[in-house]
Specification:
The structure holds two protein chains of two kinds.
Chain A lengths: L1 H20 L33 E7 L4 H18 L3 E7 L3 H10 L6 E4 L2 H10 L6 H6 L2 H4 L2 H6 L1 E2 L2 E2 L2 E6 L1 E6 H7 L7 H13 L3 E3 L10 H13 L1 H8 L8 H15 L7 H6 L2 H10 L2 E7 L2 H8 L7 E4 L13 E10 L6 H12 L2 H11 L21 H15 L4 E2 L1 H4 L2 H15 L5 H17 L11
Parallel strand pairs in A: 1-2, 8-9, 11-12
Antiparallel strand pairs in A: 3-11, 4-5, 6-11, 7-9, 7-10
Helix pairs in contact in A: 2-17, 10-11, 10-12, 12-21, 20-21
Chain B lengths: L1 H39 L2 E2 L7 E2 L3 H8 L1 H32 L6 H13 L2 H11 L6 H7 L16 H25 L4 H9 L4 H12 L1 H17 L2 H6 L11 H11 L3 H27 L5
Antiparallel strand pairs in B: 1-2
The chains are: A alpha/beta, B mainly alpha.
């Protein structure tokens, strides 16, 4: 009996040790990656490595299309590592990046380089002390000479620089140029022309605008961005973001009413139901095949246009979105796709700063990357000249980048909701718009609720820095 | 006496030692975070930094939050659907399958396969089948049958029920297997006695089968209620609670609050209400059992 008891005790003790020990505990949690072919690797915690060994800097970033991953790794990661034998840059591609990063950082871990969806999201990290100021590094590396002033401004919280944009973007109009030629259509430059063209496409049995939110529910806010800036005007949006104008001002209410009319007319993919169910591939495929005439989307669409028009025999074009109201003066709406900061928990902030500097210090490298990727991502906000682009760069991409970067540098910009609205108000913009479309609430009620939420956000200090227009 | 006391002590202690590992895991992984959730529900917290104590403000907000009310009603609708449709289908399927001797395994496997396929995969399969331009509906419409040519997932009036249909397609086969196993434990002599008394198939089912599988049936009903309040995956993959909150449930609202609006404190409060609803039903079940109900 006693022998049996001893065996029982040993077994239970082993089970206890297994349960409590759990094997080798990684210093930092291994985040999930979105690329199955990538070998899962753990994000190493900052370590005190001897000066002779290279310092490892970890950067968690969003999943990149496989076709673009090589360009990113070649132009950014491999080139940096080759030029810096004392630093090893490790990049992990992670789905749900923001959620995973926030959880890891709050747990005291996370990557050395924190990538967040934009300035509004950096503020939380700043408030919690999770990111380091960058002003000293900005001076050391003379970032102000290479990076656009507005890009530095959007990264400031209470005057201190905490983040730099990794990619900037705006909203444009893509169209099937071949279809336009066949139908004798001209690119619209006024609201009346746009609406006339949309109706003509609808009458011809085509989709006027290939739009949907099934693949990205937040797409609703793209159109709110466009209609706010292009109907109410970028100055009005600036005034509202800075508390000088209310969101239930008639200009914004009318903008939302117009957006509702576009949906009611069936101009978005033929019907509201289609808008909610068609996937990304469906709408781009429709545009590429000439089943749809136009699409209002961000400049990340340059990559998709390249993909979905290939082998169709059709050509695509892009155009500035026209004013949606006579007298409106819109500028390109400034969007920050993502921002980079230095994790306050890193033990190698200088090395992290070197990585950041690498991203911004060579216009030709940036231009090559933009050309290879197609302009969808990693459009870092540095001054790039036309001659910096490789000869085989799509001229349409060059024209677009030159156009909106020039206006941004002049201080003329509109404002995108995902960059400059506080999170709670932004989420209401997305979900509330669906209630406007189905008639559950009126545009007045939608704007009034937005005003209420914005006031709360403003009182709580959640509104991100709003770059001043010139 | 010492030996007897030692034996008694071992008899009491030994079971606890065996469950100690899983108990420790449970405390660390479940109880600990659950208690933390209670704390966070009383705070205003973005998920980063330090939470700010606000007392019951989150719960007060729940009382007047229209999205919460919509989500709760959708959860109740979902519960009603899953307490009836898949249970009825499961009972019917099991009852029809029980007397089959040759080929029964084939049907059991066929009904069970959707259950073992990942929910994301199932959802994508049905999203393709229900595609408004390339799915079954448009195909039938082109062949003269137009009534299914509807964007089911894109209509406010059908989105929730369509997702429920898809989830049911994956779920009912599991119930068939469970009920079939329970039915096979009912004594054959009871059926023979019923037939001798002239009972029909339906009477056999109602008076012999159902009472015989009552414990299993009640267990699945109870778990269905609990899981209905926790439903998330199919809804999030297929509609993310849209369009316009038409398929919003409490779990998607928790997700949106925590990771969309960064209102983690409020999300914790909503999550606690989900636990509360589940606890109420479990409490009813336990109370009825203690009162002698044979369930």
């Amino acid at each position: 009996m006693q022998c049996k008891d001893i065996w029982i005790a040993l077994l239970v003790t082993c089970l206890l040790l297994v349960a409590c020990g759990g094997g080798a505990t990684p210093a930092a949690p291994s985040p999930p990656t979105s690329a199955p072919e990538e070998e899962p690797s753990e994000a190493p915690a900052p370590t005190d490595e001897t000066p002779d060994e290279p310092v490892t800097i970890t950067w968690w970033t969003e999943p990149i299309l496989k076709s673009n991953r090589e360009a990113f790794l070649t132009h950014i990661v491999d080139s940096f590592n080759a030029a810096h034998p004392d630093i090893v840059l490790e990049v992990l591609f992670i789905a749900d990046l923001d959620r995973v990063t926030r959880t890891a950082v709050q747990g005291g871990e996370g990557p050395d380089i924190i990538q967040s969806p934009g300035p509004a999201f950096v503020m939380d990290y700043v408030e919690a002390g999770h990111v380091l100021p960058l002003d000293d590094y900005a001076g050391q590396y003379s970032w102000a000479e290479a990076i656009y002033p507005w890009a530095m401004d959007v990264g400031r919280v209470d005057g201190t620089l905490y983040s730099l944009p990794l990619t900037y973007e705006t909203m444009v109009l893509f169209y099937n140029a071949t279809l336009f030629d066949q139908m004798g259509w001209e690119v619209p430059v006024t609201s009346a022309e746009l609406e006339t063209l949309a109706q003509a496409a609808s009458d011809a049995g085509l989709l006027p605008f290939a739009q949907s939110n099934a693949s990205w529910k937040a797409a609703n806010e793209w159109f709110v961005t466009i209609f706010y800036n292009n109907y109410a005007g970028s100055q009005a949006v600036y005034e509202a973001l800075t508390g000088q104008r209310r969101w239930d001002d008639p200009l914004f209410v009318e903008a939302i009413q117009l957006l509702k009319e576009y949906m009611d007319n069936g101009w978005f993919s033929g019907s509201r139901e289609n808008y909610y169910t068609l996937q990304h591939a469906d709408i781009w495929g429709a545009l590429g095949d000439g089943v749809a005439a136009m699409q209002m989307t961000g400049t990340w669409g340059f990559l998709h246009a390249r993909t979905y028009f290939e082998d169709t025999g059709n050509e695509w074009g892009w155009a500035t979105l026209p004013p949606l109201r006579e007298g409106a003066q819109p500028d390109y709406a400034l969007g920050i796709g993502s921002s980079l900061s230095i994790n306050a928990g890193t033990s190698n902030p200088d090395a992290v700063a070197e990585v950041l500097d690498w991203l911004y210090n060579d216009p030709q490298r940036i231009a090559r990357l933009a050309s290879d990727i197609g302009g969808g991502e990693f459009v870092v906000p540095v001054r790039i000249a036309r001659e910096d682009f490789p000869p085989d760069t799509d001229p349409r991409l060059i024209e677009a980048l030159m156009a909106f970067s020039a206006t941004f540098e002049e201080g003329r910009y509109g404002y995108t909701t995902w960059t400059f609205w506080p999170p709670v108000t932004e989420q209401y913009i997305i979900s509330g718009m669906e209630q406007v479309w189905n008639g559950e609430i009126t545009p007045e009620e939608y704007c009034a609720e937005q005003q209420r939420l914005f006031e709360e956000d403003m009182a709580a200090g959640n509104v991100p820095p709003i770059p001043v227009r010139r | 006496m010492t030996t007897q006391s030692h034996r008694n002590w071992k008899r009491v202690l030994t079971p606890w030692l065996f469950i100690a590992p899983i108990l420790i895991l449970n405390v660390v992984i479940i109880l600990g975070p659950s208690l933390a959730s209670v704390y966070y529900s009383l705070t205003d917290w973005s998920g980063v930094g330090r939470p700010t104590w606000i007392g019951l403000a989150n719960f007060e907000r729940i009382l007047s939050d229209p999205v919460y009310h919509i989500a709760l009603i959708n959860n109740l609708k979902w519960t009603l659907i899953f307490l009836t449709v898949p249970v009825a289908m499961g009972l019917l399927g099991a009852a029809l399958l029980a007397p089959i001797e040759r080929g029964q395994m084939f049907f059991r496997v066929a009904y069970f396969i959707p259950y073992v396929i990942a929910s994301v995969v199932n959802a994508q399969i049905w999203r393709s089948l229900l595609h408004p331009l390339k799915g079954i509906g448009p195909w039938l419409a082109r062949h003269g049958i137009p009534f299914l040519n509807v964007a089911f997932l894109g209509k406010e009036s059908t989105a929730l029920y369509t997702v429920a249909f898809i989830d049911n397609w994956h779920w009912w086969g599991f119930l068939v297997v469970v009920y079939l196993a329970a039915m096979q434990s009912v004594s054959i002599s009871l059926y023979e006695a019923a037939r001798l008394d002239g009972a029909s198939r339906w009477q056999e089912f109602w008076h012999v089968t159902l009472p015989g599988i009552r414990p299993t049936l009640v267990f699945t009903l109870l778990m269905t209620i609990i899981w209905s309040f926790l439903v998330f995956d199919y809804i999030y993959v297929l509609t993310e609670g849209g369009p316009a909150h038409a398929s919003e449930v409490l779990a998607t609202e928790v997700f949106n609050a925590a990771f969309g609006r960064f209102e983690v404190g409020y999300a914790a409060a909503v999550g606690l209400t989900m636990s509360l609803f589940c606890a109420v039903f479990v409490g009813i079940f336990v109370t009825l059992r203690r009162r002698g109900w044979e369930i």
